[in-house]
Amino acid sequence: MYPLRGSFAPHCHYHVTTKEYAKAYQNSLALHTQQNPKDILINRKSLTLSLAPLEFVVAHQIHSDRVEVVNRSIGWYEESALECDGLITNQKNLVLTILTADCVPILLHDPIQQAIGAVHAGWRGTKAHIVAKTIEAMQREFGTNPKDTLAYIAPSIGKCCYEVGEDVAKYFEEDSYTQKGDKFRLDLPYLNAQQLLAMGVAQENITHSHICTACEVERFFSYRQECGCDGRFMSMVWMES
Ligand SMILES: [Zn+2]
Asked: Please, what CATH class does the domain formed by 4-239 belong to?
């Protein structure tokens, strides 16, 4: 199966890879986990060929609220030293990528100022408002107006499957989880959408994949469903020149 594909605008696209996309290791694209880097680089090479002449940026994701402005390819052929969870650019043909297996990838496009962003939000990043801070960085760097901004919330673990303890649930608003005994089901995609709305992004400009990685573990890596897998799928956004 091909990646999930979409376009924010005629010249701005997003893709999400699935397990079937390449052969080795069911197409993990992560260098930082325990899989053989040779196989991962083969997978990345095949992605490079299919999307030539695009260049890629991979962050070393650390569950933080750090956002970096990038202008050139980083972390594609070796483990990334760029520690952050939000990437932004106004460069064309530069693909911003997020690697996940349950966490929420959020892809952003400002079609007026011609800028893009990519966000990695697990519960820690959501607690730290990483998606809001990425929009703020786009405002600061590129003059982005949130009301013009388009957002895609890519496949991630849904409220149907994301069980957390009270120690995690207590950080979030009561409408973002359901409680059954001492178990809580947290809705990370909803929380990130709420943060986008609070920043001024319009409801109609937020697209949800409505795909839960744990429910659709045949297509997507799920850390929870696979009991701590090493595989990661890649969500990507770029503008063509
Ligand atoms: Zn689910």
From this structure: alpha beta
Quote the ligand 1 centre to 218 CA distance (angstroms): 12
Domain spans, the chain: 4-239
Average pLDDT over residues 112-120: 98
- Distance from the CA of 74 to the center of ligand 1, in angstroms? 33
Whole-number Å distance, alpha carbon 5 to ligand 1 midpoint, is: 21
Distance 104 CA to ligand 1 centre (A): 13
- Exposure string for 62-98, b = 16+ CB within 10 A, e = fewer: ebbbbbbbbeebbbbeeebeeebbbbbbbbeebbbbb
Provide the pLDDT for residue 52.
Answer: 86
pLDDT at 45 (0 to 100): 87
Ligand 1 centroid vs 225 CA: distance in angstroms? Answer: 9
Residue 65 reports pLDDT greater than 70? yes
What count of Cα atoms within 13 Å lies in the side-chain half-sphere of residue 142?
27
